Structure formats: structure tokens, C-alpha cells
Amino acid sequence: RALVAAEAEGDERAVEAALRPRTLAEVVGQERVREQLALVLEAARGRGRAPDHVLLSGPPGLGKTTLAMIIAAEMQSPLRLTSGPAITHAGDLAAILSGMNDGDVLFVDEIHRMSRPAEEMLYMAMEDFRVDVVIGKGPGATAIPLEIPPFTLVGATTRAGLLPGPLRDRFGFTAHLEFYEPAELELIVRRSAGLLDVHLTDEGAGEIASRSRGTPRIANRLLRRVRDYAQVRADGVVTLDIAHRALDLYEVDQSGLDRLDRAVLDALCRRFGGGPVGVSTLAVAVGEERETVEEVAEPFLVRSGFLARTPRGRVATPAAWQHLGLTPPPDGGS
Ligand code: ADP
């Protein structure tokens, strides 16, 4: 089995891929999205046509790539994978599109990071299944129209708001993925443990779930780290105590905050008196890209009630001060 080989080679990405649900029925949580998507796919199958273009938005690790793969699998269509940053020229996209067959599914991860000319070519391809390939430069340039077989675009973005309106409007179905509840993450941890042949108690699974930042990818990763710990420092069984000790070692705290999350809160409280402070300034203070702070750390901090976005900037909540063991300034830190 692929999973066994990947494990043997210590290939974390391959392990992650092997843990992906393969059908909509195997997907844990996201009931609404699953039901909507099932309907879109069944209707398309009934008509014998490629389904409408699908936009999936939500923070990293919530299942966007997994859903794209499932869409292709349920349509019994080949899936092609690319990403916004990989498409730097319109020509890159033209090459991909011209190689597609009827009914293929094209997955574009980080679709908001595509170059402008490629984006414009994509509008046309999505709507008219046609692109204009420009040959030559200057006055002698000619546009050659190229027909593309009907395909389904599945775009993924960390925030749908980053997409230009015209692109967003060309998706027939948009789904926003939400962070998962601890009970759902617990199911995911148990499912993965089964696949990885890890023995864990219910309390152990619950502990990993509650520190996974509402994110399946993190739940699976923490499970593997806790499993390492159980194997090396104990008898291999993941109990509550083992999960505790392992997660403390990996600096994932009780609320699921990791080093970056804590660094952001720490900078916000200690250096900027609790804010308000702009996200760019905050990113510089923690030595990270603005995008990483905004799309990876912030959504979870907001959802956990540690950070608030205001028109004047980011503000620490009383819970943030408390979490860091600090006393907020008398004016409440804002
Ligand atoms: P994204 O594309 O949003 O970053 P992925 O689709 O790559 O996220 O998912 C990351 C990992 O989390 C995958 O290994 C997958 O197994 C797991 N995963 C994501 N969503 C679910 C889910 N709903 N049920 C079970 N596992 C999931």
C-alpha cells in the first residue's frame, strides 16, 4: 500500500496524501458543503456534462485539495493540479488549458495569486471555453482563438475576498470551509490512527483534537508527532498523558496555539500595548510575511477570541492578555 511505502520512506507529504478521504462520504464534518457539492455533482452526472466551476475558500489545511480530488474522482475525470504562483505568464495557462480533455477537472490552488494576464485569460476560458493566444509582439502581434473542451475549474483560495469580482462571479458554486469542531477533529484523528496503525485511547484522541487549531492537517500532523513520542518514550500507546507530554514538547499549548500564534499575540501585547496595530507592522515584528500572519495565524486567533480586527488595526482581547499571563493596561489595551 502507498501508505506503508510512504511511512517507510518518512515522506510526510505522501503520508498526508494517503490520509485524504477519497469520497464525499468519507469526508468528516462540513455537512452543508458536502450536501451542496453532492447535489452539484449528481446533477452534472445526470446531464452528462462537466459540473459548474467550483470555488473553495478557507484557511490552509481544511480540505480544499481533498475536495478537488474528490470532485474529479466522483466525476471519474482526470484531475490536473497547478497553483496561482506557478502560472506567471498567460502562456503557462494557455499551455495547460490546451492540453485538457472533455470533462477534465483543473485544480488551481492559491488562485488569488495568479498573474493579471493569466487571470483575464482564465475568465474567458471559464465562460466561453476559448482563449486567445497572442503570437508575436507589437503591431505584428496576432491573436489566435483556441477552443478548449468543456472542463471544470476548481479554484482554492485562503480568502475569497482576495479574488477580483469578475473571477469570483464566474464560479457557479462557492463553498467556504470553516474550522472544524473538536468532536469532528477527534473523528479525523481516530480515522487516521486506524490507517497508520496507531493505538490511541479516546482521551488521547480528544487531547490531540483539542490542540489542532480546528484544522485536519494539523490534527494529522500532531497525531504523527505524538505517535513518535509514544513509540520512543513509552510503549507506543497514545494515552492522555502521552499526548499531553508530547504536545507540550512540541510547544502546542492547551488552546492549540503554536509558536507563530503566540509570537503574534506576544508582539501585539508586549510591543504594541495591545494595539491597534496594522497587520504589516505585526508581521515585521514577528519576522514573518504579512500573508502568513493574515492567512495562517490570524483567522484562528480571531475565531478563538484572542484577537480582533478593527478599522484601526489589530487589537488584543482580554483573553489574549490572560492567555499570555499578562495584565492588560488600565485602558483595556485599545
Ligand atoms: P487544503 O487544500 O485546504 O490546504 P487539504 O485538502 O490538503 O487542505 O487537507 C489537509 C489534510 O487534512 C489532508 O491530509 C486530509 O487528509 C485532511 N483532511 C482535510 N479535510 C478533511 C476532512 N473533512 N475529513 C478528513 N480529513 C480531512
Automatic annotation (TrEMBL):
Residues at which DNA binds: R290, R309, R314
Gene Ontology terms: cellular component: cytoplasm; Holliday junction resolvase complex
Location in the cell: Cytoplasm
This protein's UniProt keywords: ATP-binding, Cytoplasm, DNA damage, DNA recombination, DNA repair, DNA-binding, Helicase, Hydrolase, Nucleotide-binding
EC number(s) from the headed UniProt entry: 3.6.4.-
NCBIfam families: PRK00080.1 (NF000868), ruvB (TIGR00635)
Name of this protein: Holliday junction branch migration complex subunit RuvB
Organism of origin: Nocardioides iriomotensis
